[in-house]
Write the structure tokens for this entry.
Amino acid sequence: MNFDFSDDQKQLRDQARKFLAEKCPPKAVRAVLDGKAPYDKQLWKGLAEMGFLGVAIPEDFGGAGAGHLELCVIAEEMGRALAPVPFSSTVYLAAEALLLAGSEAQKRKWLPAIAAGEAIGTLALFEGKGNPSPQAVKLTASAGTLNGAKKPVPDGAIADFAIVAARTGSSGRETDVSLFLVDLKAGGIEAKALTNIDPTRGQAELSFKNCKAEPLGASGEGWSIISRLLDRAAVLIAFEQVGGADRTLEMGRDYALDRIAFGRPIGSFQAVKHMLADMYVSATLARSNCYYGAWALSSDASELPEAAAAARISATQAFQHCAKNNTQVHGGMGFTWEFDCHMYYRRANAMALGLGSLSYWEDALIDRMRKKNAA
Amino acid sequence: MNFDDTPQEAEFRDTARKWIDANAPKEFEAELSKSSLGRIRLAQHDMVEVGKAWQKKKAHGGWACLHWPKEYGGRGATPIERVIWQQEEGVFGKLTQPFQIGEGMCGPTVMAYGSEAAKQRYLPKLASGEEIWCQLFSEPAAGSDVAGLRTRAERRGDGWIVNGQKIWTSGAHYSDYGLLITRTDPNVPKHKGLTMFFLDMKSKGVEVRPIKQANGMQEFNEVYFTDVVIPDSQRLGAVGDGWSVSLTTLMNERMSIGARLATGFPEMFEFCSNLMTEDGPAIDDRATRSKLASWAVKTSGLKYTSYRAISALSKGERPGPENSIGKLVAGVMLQDIAMYAMDLEGAAGVFTGEAEEEARGQFQQMLLSSPSMRIAGGTDEILRNIIAERVLGLPGDVRVDKDVPFNKIPIKGR
């Protein structure tokens, strides 16, 4: 059994960690947090130069052609560093959608641009509150023209193109949904940035008025593609969450060692030690579930739907748990704008919702386990 | 990343599988498969006798105490081979329960501190199951703080006279030998006045009494010592060095990897899938699903954490500290699952009879037994301390008794 990343993949992780430590210190995250820029353009360019944006994009389409295990280790580092760039929307959602369902021409046009850091892409799925479901897709497409609105769209205000889920039928079945690829720089689209709990990753509303769009994948296949896409993205995002969970555990541990109260480091009090031990337990369970998700993703295993849901739930719980207890360990200082605790707390809670909430994935996991048991 | 054996591992697995297929006591397979949650009962046979027969057969075939050197009755196998063996032994591994303390704790301690003569005399018989060993550490006043133990050993001529009481001794009633830690000097701080011995459990003055547990069962014992004589040749390590000897024993306890802890989840998933409530199947209920999903990812998280450790062993590396989370996660989960299953049964959840309701008493048994999972082998609190100190590097507890002679430490709280 070799249920671990290879030495090369670990080396890539070290390389990514070193790069991000240098190019993405908390100061860089704060610049976006404070609204000085919508995202860190320098960092985005650097990620392209390092080959990280196209790590899982085939060489034929301008990528490094490495694979999804490599993307998993980079994702973990992006989460650790709170990288304020449209990485998850562009790489886990847009590029993956193109790889799953894009035509040769669509892949030729957009994948090399993504790898080069010249195009930001996203997925426009949600229409207000609620979780992913084919019934919630109301935006219409007829004769290649879109009408309706999407929100929240991750990085929607800075994206160059979007994969848009639209209603193309009225049978009441999931085959009513089709996907479209929209060049957001063309006419007929209004993008409005919306404030959200984690300003280091933007959210927007996209309104489409008689907007021309090309299909992505076959008509009526939209929901089937979305389902596969969400499972794949769930694993990758779970790695970001595990990176964040580990980092907040370290921050809490370090502070507990340094901070003196009642004449002792607060890390010598069992109430604090046990809180940190529980964070370690959550982070470890999440990491192990994520490894299984990484295996299923990289080997296109039939176990992917169940593995993805388990990774997503476990990593969401771990990051939320570690981020909130990290703030608690820091006491009053943890509630200041100056300390970094709140940046992770914001990110943890935004990430918990971005791909469908915990309850959505809990439902998905139980459904998938039942299906397996019935088979 | 893959779950495949290396060619050598595959060959070893194949050899083990063939041997087990040809030799295992298949007549007990069905019964052993049914006994879950660590409780083993055979309707018509004595567990220890059936276990001894299986252990003896394994020893003859070269499959007992795999990781021990051959000269002491083992196979000289690698850690990964030991894990593969456990996977292949499957339900028959449950029969090894009476020998686990000997194999995992007493044997390694004798191997590290015993004389060559003692090793030759005791280890092969321990490995073959001919002689069973138990471990005599915990006392009524020394549980988590085991170094606070009071059983006295006093030098007399060529030997030692032991007086005192041990508790929570698994298998003392069928054991031939015991590993015993005693206090030999109460005038020095507690960790410094301890000495380790082993003794014949049939020695004069040893009395074994079963403990009736909170769940009504009797699985452990108290052991009383009244003027028991132990020859000095049965001392392990130097006089006063008992604490560091005991660390060898306890470290070996924590090395067991790949042993699946019962979480109660598979039973709970099946129960919720089948239970009809007024609102339909329990598994369709939102609140139930949420709980099931959380337990599911903890269960899979533990499974894949052990896979990571096995992978490290496969590469000849030392596994990381991840495995220390197992019992901490599983113990609480058992208790929570039992309570929620009974909640789903409503008023009928109180019944323990096997004929009653859908759950047939299994969660009621789980409820009553689960407190021990959170206490035995390190309480949840001790395990959190261990993670905090050894994994995260946080400071040890303030110890007010550290430099105080043992006989000056207060013995009453108020």
In short: The mean pLDDT of chain B is 92. The beta strands of chain B are 133-136, 152-156, 159-170, 177-183, 194-200, 206-210, 220-231, 235-236, 276-277, 280-281.
